[in-house]
Description:
The chain has 448 residues and is of the alpha+beta class. It has 8 helices and 18 strands.
Amino acid sequence: xxxAAEGLPGVPPTQPQQPVPPQASGQHLQQSAxxxxxxxxxxxxxxxxxxxxxxxxxxxxxxxxxxxxxxxDGVNRCPRCGSTxxxxxxxxxxxxxxxxxxxxxxxxxxxxxxxxxxxxQLQGTVVGSGAADIDETMTDVVTLKCGGCGSEVVVNVxxxxxxxxxxxxNILTVNNQVPNGAVPDAVLPFTxxxxxxxxxxxxxxGKRRMFAHRKFLREFTPENVVGVYLPYMVVDGxxxxxxxxxxxxxxxxxxxxxxxxxxxFYDADVYQVRRFVDFTVDDLTIESSxxxxxMDVFVNTNNxxxxxLPFDTKNAVKWNASYLTGFxxxxxxxxxxxxxxxxxxxxxxxxxxxVSPTVSGYNRGVRWEHEQxxxxxxxxxxxxxxxxxYSYYHVxxxxxxxxxxxxxxxxxxxxxxxxxxxxxxxxAALTTGxxxxxxxxxxxxxxx
Length: 448
Ligand SMILES: [Zn+2]
Ligand SMILES: [Zn+2]
């Protein structure tokens, strides 16, 4: 935090820069013309502000190789017996050989992908090779050469990351980072089992049983929950921001008139406020599939998925397609440049919350009017995050809608929506009996 920029250390100075003569009503304060002009003039100072470091060439992108070299291409063998029958055992979060029951784990990626470097010295853009730009000409069909018998096996990475060789029965997995967005830098394996997910969904729906649609309750089969790996970018950043605005301090309040003409007036001083903040962020998670965000029925889901964040990204491991056996996955379709505006939005809101403790002295609040963000450095890792999804297609009044209950595959955090029966809502309101509730709900029913 750097307060030096305009020297208002939490409390307003005794000599306001732009004193405003007390007015009859505080409501007019914000319209005073000289204030507006002053505020608009402020941002022009930025170019000359010595506190802001020069912005680096945004094209200066470097790449860190995250290819799991040990796996090579194709056959992923059990380190003990050599079998290719390998899958994730969620009880332990480790890979297990289905033949000899040996369990092991890929190396965690924390501190492994990028050179050791304090975040506040981060410069330019560094991306993991799994987060590199998607080659638009690449198809989803990947041909693997079987290391067992030499024949060729085709895998469609849109739906699966492994396939069995018809000839020698070995399982082949996509381990090379083909540039189609299907292979991330890292994966956070499921540690919540199917049974635990079913239990979490049952509990979530149970709490909403009172108002849930009868058809939903009748058809409720949480056992149909599906484990999905969703694509995210995990971003570290080094940034600074300047925000400008107006802060108000109440000087006095007084009452005039009597009876019905009684009116309370507030006099306030208005100050130009500027704050500068240097900050770093560690492991911001941003979704990297636009296809999902753009589809109407999924807008709902995105909010639901955001509600089950965060994930313990520090425990993510190196890519190994065997972690996906038995699960589905959704491909990343967004490149770093497309996601950057979302990152900048998040950085700005972090900056605003970073400066808010320093302006608490403005007891009538601060209204931020301008802001400038300088991103000095970022580094990007693409990662698959585990989510259990239960979906239910509900049709009402000829309109269909997909409802979801999502469970964080690590923490068990659960969020979702269930179709509601308006009749049952209304009945509940009438029996529990407050008149206002009944009126509100009657109104709701009438307007739908
Ligand atoms: Zn084995
Ligand atoms: Zn084969």
